[in-house]
Amino acid sequence: MTSSPTPRHTDDLPIRDDMIRLGQALKLANLAEDGAHARSLVEEGRVSVNGEVETRRGRQLHPGDVVSTGDAAVRITAGG
Predict the structure, then answer these.
(1) Which of 21, 39, 61, 79 is the residue whose CA sits 20 to 30 A from 55?
(2) pLDDT higher than threshold 80 for residue 27
(3) Is the pTM of this model over 0.70?
């Protein structure tokens, strides 16, 4: 498996609660068009969390976690 490209820029993604699921974060950050697209990105190993490929769409993300796919990335922050 090849490693994904290094993201060019990391945006902040503020969340209301102390946790968000990976699939929800991908949609909220516009990294996925919808739930089906988020699922396929994750299942195909095209999403990384904190630099490691993540294959669980339901993974819990907390402030400080960085999600990337392709050349886009977001950092989960508190206060959405």
Answers:
(1) 79
(2) yes
(3) yes
